[in-house]
Design a protein that fits this description.
CATH class of the largest domain: Mainly Alpha
Helix content: 55-70%
Order of helices and strands: EHEHHEHHEEHEEHHHHHHHHEEHH
Largest sheet: 3 strands, antiparallel
CATH topology of the largest domain: Fumarase C, Chain B, domain 1
Distance between the termini: 51 Å
CATH superfamily of the largest domain: Fumarase/aspartase (N-terminal domain)
Strand order of the largest sheet: 4-6-7
Number of strands: 9
Strand content: 5-15%
Structural class: mainly alpha
Length: 370
C-alpha cells in the first residue's frame, strides 16, 4: 500500500492496512512546502531574540531559563536522550509502524518547525520497515507520549535500537541498513519529535480494530445461538427497531435478520412452539450489541481525528509567524475513547457469557444435558 502524506487525511481503512504489514509513504509537494515554511519560520523568529518555549528556553519549570545560541542543538539532543527512559517488553512492530505513520502525518502539517531532513529520515525508516525499539511502559498521556517517542527519536540520531527484518540492532546500524544518515537536530526538532499522542492513539486504534472483529464474531455467534435453542427471530423485526432508532441497534438487527434468513431450524418451529419469548441474552441482542456498535463508532470518530491531528507544543503558524503554546499534547480524548472501547468489549463478553450459561442449562435451552 502507498500513502501520499498531505494529499488527504488518514482513514481507518489505511490504519488497518498499516497494522497488517509494511507500507510505502511519500510526502506530497504540499506537505514538503508546509514543512519547509515551518522550519524557516522558527529560524526567522530565533533571529529576533524573542523567547520561544522549548526552542531557546528550558522545558517545564525551566521555561524561564534562556538557552544560549551555541547550545540550541544540544538542548534538542538532550531532551531526546533524557526522556528515553521507558521499560518493559518492546511494542509490537505493527504498532511501531503505525506510530511512525501517525508521527509523519502530524509533523507534515507544518506546525512543528521540524526540518525536511528529519522528515525524510522518518519516511525512509517507514518505507524500509526499519522500526525503532520502543519499550511498552513509560508513557504519561497527560503530557503526551514523551518516553516512547523519545525511544523512536533516538534512532534518527543514530542511537537507541531498531528492528531490521525482525532482528534487533543498534540505531546506528539500523540507519546504515536503511541507507540513511543521523539527523543533526536543530532548534525545536527534539521537542517536535517527542511531543504528541501518537503512541496512545495507535494503541487505542489497535484495540478498536480488535473490538470490531469481536463485534462481528459476537453477532455471528449470537445468531447461531438463537438457532441452537430454537429461538425466535421476531426480536429482530425492523418495525421494533424503527421505534427506537439508535443507528447501532438498527444495524445489529439487520445483521441478525441477514444471518438467520432462510434458516430451516427457525422454519421448523414457527408453529406449535408454546414459548412466548426468549431469554434476554437472545432477545435483546440488537439492543446490547447495537449500543456497543454505537460506542465503537464514536471511538473510531475520535481516534481518526486524533490520527490526523497535530499534538505538538508550541505550535508554529507560518502564515503570520505566531508561535502559540497550548495543550494539544494532552491525550484526554484518546483516554476516553480507549475506556469506551473497553466498556463495549466488556458488554459483548457479558451477553455472550449469559448465552453460554443458557445454552448449557437444559431447563432453558431444552438441549440434552450430556
Amino acid at each position: 500500500m502507498s500513502i501520499h502524506i498531505g494529499d488527504r487525511p488518514l482513514d481507518l481503512d489505511m490504519i488497518r492496512k498499516v497494522l497488517a504489514g509494511p507500507i510505502s509513504v511519500e510526502l506530497s509537494d504540499k506537505a514538503r512546502a508546509q514543512i519547509t515554511r515551518s522550519a524557516e519560520t522558527v529560524t526567522r523568529l530565533l533571529a529576533t531574540g524573542d523567547a520561544i518555549y522549548g526552542v531557546n528556553t528550558g522545558f517545564g519549570k525551566l521555561a524561564k531559563q534562556r538557552i544560549a545560541a551555541a547550545d540550541l542543538s544540544a538542548l534538542q539532543l538532550n531532551i531526546v536522550r533524557s526522556h528515553a527512559a521507558g521499560v518493559g517488553a518492546p511494542l509490537d512492530m505493527a504498532i511501531v509502524r503505525t506510530i511512525l505513520l501517525l508521527k509523519i502525518n502530524a509533523l507534515s502539517q507544518g506546525a512543528s518547525g521540524i526540518s525536511l531532513k528529519a522528515m525524510e529520515t522518518l519516511v525512509g525508516l517507514l518505507n524500509r520497515d526499519v522500526l525503532p525499539v520502543i519499550p511498552g511502559q513509560g508513557s504519561v498521556g497527560a503530557s503526551g507520549d514523551l518516553a516512547p517517542l523519545a525511544h523512536l527519536s533516538l534512532v534518527l540520531i543514530g542511537e537507541g535500537e531498531a528492528f531490521v527484518k525482525g532482528k534487533r540492532v543498534s540505531g546506528s546500524d539500523a540507519l546504515k541498513a536503511a541507507g540513511l544518515t543521523p539527523v543533526p537536530l536543530g532548534p525545536k526538532e527534539g521537542l517536535a519529535l517527542l511531543n504528541g499522542t501518537q503512541v496512545s492513539a495507535v494503541l487505542a486504534l489497535s484495540g478498536l480494530i480488535a473490538a470490531e472483529r469481536n463485534a462481528s464474531t459476537e453477532i455471528l455467534a449470537g445468531a447461531l445461538s438463537v438457532d441452537a435453542v430454537m429461538g425466535s427471530d421476531t426480536p429482530f423485526d425492523p418495525r421494533i427497531h424503527a421505534l427506537r432508532p439508535h443507528p447501532g441497534q438498527q444495524l445489529a438487527a439487520k445483521h441478525y435478520r441477514r444471518l438467520m434468513q432462510g434458516s430451516a431450524i427457525r422454519a421448523s418451529h414457527v408453529t406449535g412452539d408454546d414459548r412466548v419469548q426468549d431469554p434476554y441474552s437472545f432477545r435483546c441482542q440488537p439492543q446490547v450489541m447495537g449500543a456497543c456498535l454505537d460506542l465503537l463508532t464514536h471511538a473510531a470518530k475520535t481516534l481518526v481525528i486524533e490520527a490526523n491531528g497535530v499534538s505538538d507544543n508550541p505550535l508554529v503558524f507560518a502564515e503570520d509567524g505566531a508561535v502559540l503554546s497550548g495543550g494539544n499534547f494532552h491525550a484526554e480524548p484518546v483516554a476516553f475513547a480507549a475506556d469506551i472501547i473497553a466498556l463495549a468489549v466488556a458488554e459483548m463478553g457479558s451477553i455472550s457469557e449469559r448465552r453460554i450459561a443458557a445454552l448449557i442449562d437444559p431447563t432453558i435451552s431444552l438441549l440434552p444435558p450430556f
